[in-house]
Every structure is written in structure tokens, then in C-alpha cells.
Design goal:
By secondary structure, the protein is of the alpha+beta class. The chain has 13 helices and 20 strands.
């Protein structure tokens, strides 16, 4: 099989790239190792930056998001029993975020691909990217029990940290930067109306907590837990009791409880692979970078990558201009490192390190107080949270 762009991975990055290329008349084939049901139900991010929401609308994939998504114009930082709201539009010239789950983004993009796009092969496991540094790269893959080869002009590696794309960049040319955190997130989905109309980020002496949501009837909540924790170690009652404690305010309000339908534990780490391009192979999303989830940047960085890549491929296809392709890695990495900084800063400000001293605790509280009392500090947070430009 032959195509112009081989896209490995049918997460939001690969699917959006395929949609953008379809609109420009550029052929692509999407290979996804899992089945469609898995892709449409795996729980991941749920906060879309302004630029991500705008990119989905421009791609014709924003109609259901605009009907069912929740537009949020701020977040609450909660510490020492009090909350402080950061108002995004007043600090950023009108920008906001949208609560709309990654699963729903994938459903919308899959439906559009099947309605009028190129091939999307589920259960197609990419085995290797070969000859990426030549004019004729190819992807070996296994589908329906048969091994095949996809010949192409370009490869977009949107297959995550454990995929084959990143491994195709020679070790001698690669640089990796990583930070691991000594704690994790216990995440739960609950059939309970959200207890607040916006996200609440809480710093507590017992550890971080986050109140989020997936819809007006489903809450998404997180607790900082020790690294290595198993979800089974926590009973439903213990989870709700700990959330109540860490999210408590001086007015005595309590969370709305309901049945917990899913639990998971997410390790916390930062990772960047440089460069994001090798020959005609372009890495995007988790294949190139991972951020701790505190800043809600993972999905949004992936979208930024593929928007940048699509523009570069379209320019080269239409005018023969290779500039965007040549500068792809440097362009994306500028945004990636800004997001890495923001996610790290949010994580360090809100989480309790197991080795923290009273001095460290006071530094966290001082930073939170600065954001609550300084427009400049609040603006810096709001601009990063709602998203830096893709270009």
C-alpha cells in the first residue's frame, strides 16, 4: 500500500492530522494498534485550550464539542481553607478553556474520517519505521494476522511513548530530558454532579487534590498518592473522605458524593525527546514529550504539534516550500518547553513532596498568595493555562 503520509496512532493527534490533511487534499493512512472501541473509551485528558478548541472547529470537528462541552472562564486555587478564582478572559483578552473529554474528541474525528477521509486501520500494529532518512520511508505493520508494508513520503509518529516511532530516531542523534516525581495521581470517575462549576486545584498539607468534571452529571477527581500506590488500596469511602478533607474550605462545604465508576493511578513525570524530526519522520504528542497532568497540557501539546506539521506539509505540497518541515522540531520544541515549565511549576506549587521541609511549605504558600494578590502573576498563569499560540 502507498500513501503520502503514514500516520501511526489514532489518538487525537493522529486523527486531527489526518483530518487536516484530508481538507488539503493530501493522502494519508492511519494505523492504530488497538480496536475502535478501545480508542473511543480510554480515559485521558479533558481540558482543551482555546487554540485546541479553535483548531477542532476549523477542522469541522467542533459541532458536538460546542453543544456538549463546558466552556470554563477560570479555575479556583484553594489553599489554607480559602479559594481564589483566576479569571481567564479578563487576564488574557477573552481566552478560555473547554471541558470536553479526549474520548469524545476521538469519536468525533473517527466519524469524520470514516465519512469522507482516507483509510483508518484499527488493529494495525506498527512494527517498525524504516529508511526514515531517505526519500522513500516505509512502515512495516501487522493487520489481520498479515505483515504488510506501507510506503509513503512522510511518517507522522503519533504513537506515544512506547510506540515504534521514537525508537526509529538513532540513539546517537537523540537527546532526552526527564524528571520523575515521587508521587502519583489516584484518579476517579464518579456519577455525581460536580461540586463546583469550575476546576479546583487544592494545595493541602496531606497532598494535592483536584476537582474536575466530564459533564454536568459526572465528576472527575484526583488525589496525590505515594508513588507505587495501587487503586485497589483505596476504598470508595476512603477516597471521598480524603477528597473532602483536602478540598475543604472554612465555610464547611462538602463534596457531592456518588458511585465511583472507575479508578486509575497515573505516574508523574516530565520527558522531552529532541529532535522531533529525523529525515522524513516527524514525532508528535507523547512520542516526543510527556508532561505531568497538573497543567492540562498533554493533549494540547499534541494538537499544537500536528497543527504545525499540517501547515508545513500543506505549504510543501502546494508551493514546494520546505521551510515549515525544516523548522518543525525547533518550532514545536519552543512551545513544548514552555508547557513543560508550566506543568512543572504547577506541580511543584501544589503537591507535597515527601521530603518537604517547613521552609518548602512556606514557599508554596507564598507563591499561591502571590498569584492571588498580583495581577501580573495571575496573568502569567492564565496565559499558560489557556494556551500559548501554536505558531
Amino acid at each position: 500500500m502507498r500513501t503520502t503520509v503514514a500516520i501511526i496512532g489514532a489518538g487525537p493527534a493522529g486523527l486531527l492530522l489526518a483530518r487536516l490533511l484530508d481538507a488539503a487534499g493530501i493522502e494519508s493512512v492511519v494505523l492504530e494498534s488497538h480496536d475502535r472501541a478501545y480508542v473511543e473509551r480510554r480515559q485521558r485528558a479533558g481540558i482543551l485550550e482555546q487554540g485546541t478548541a479553535d483548531a477542532l472547529r476549523a477542522a469541522g470537528a467542533g459541532a458536538r464539542m460546542d453543544r456538549e462541552g463546558l466552556r470554563h472562564t477560570g479555575i479556583e486555587l484553594r489553599f489554607e481553607g480559602r479559594g481564589h478564582r483566576v479569571d481567564f478572559p479578563s487576564l488574557t483578552g477573552g481566552r478560555a478553556v473547554t471541558v470536553y473529554a479526549q474520548t469524545e474528541v476521538c469519536k468525533d474525528l473517527i466519524a469524520l474520517r470514516f465519512r469522507g477521509g482516507g483509510p483508518l486501520l484499527f488493529g494495525a500494529e506498527a512494527l517498525a519505521v524504516e529508511d526514515a532518512d531517505t526519500d522513500a520511508p516505509r512502515v512495516r505493520y501487522r493487520h489481520e494476522g498479515r505483515e504488510s508494508v506501507l510506503h509513503c513520503a512522510y511518517v507522522a509518529g503519533c504513537d506515544g511513548y512506547w510506540g515504534v516511532s521514537r525508537a526509529a530516531v538513532p540513539a546517537a542523534l537523540s537527546r532526552t530530558y526527564e524528571r520523575r516525581y515521587p508521587y502519583a495521581w489516584l484518579g476517579v470517575l464518579a456519577d455525581a454532579p460536580p461540586s463546583h462549576d469550575e476546576l479546583v486545584y487544592a494545595r493541602h498539607d496531606r497532598g494535592f487534590a483536584l476537582l474536575s468534571m466530564r459533564s454536568p452529571t459526572v465528576s472527575r477527581l484526583y488525589l496525590q498518592v505515594p508513588e507505587g500506590t495501587r487503586a485497589a488500596d483505596w476504598s470508595e469511602r476512603a477516597i471521598w473522605d480524603e477528597l473532602d478533607l483536602r478540598l475543604a474550605t472554612d465555610d464547611g462545604g462538602r463534596l457531592v458524593r456518588g458511585p465511583i465508576t472507575a479508578t486509575s493511578v497515573t505516574p508523574m513525570r516530565s520527558h522531552v525527546h529532541e529532535p522531533m524530526r529525523h529525515g522524513r519522520l516527524f514525532l508528535a504528542g507523547d512520542a516526543a514529550h510527556i508532561v505531568p497532568p497538573t497543567g492540562a497540557k498533554g493533549l494540547n501539546l499534541a494538537v499544537g504539534d500536528v497543527v504545525t506539521l499540517a501547515r508545513a506539509l500543506v505549504a510543501h505540497h502546494a508551493d514546494g516550500d520546505p521551510t515549515g518541515l525544516d523548522t518543525y522540531s525547533a518550532t514545536c520544541l519552543r512551545r513544548v518547553w514552555q508547557a513543560e515549565w508550566f506543568a512543572y511549576a504547577m506541580t511543584a506549587m501544589l503537591h507535597r513532596d515527601p521530603d518537604a521541609t517547613p521552609f518548602d511549605d512556606r514557599l508554596q504558600l507564598a507563591r499561591l498568595d502571590r498569584i492571588a494578590t498580583s495581577r501580573a502573576a495571575a496573568t502569567d498563569l492564565a496565559e499558560s493555562y489557556t494556551g500559548l499560540p501554536f505558531d
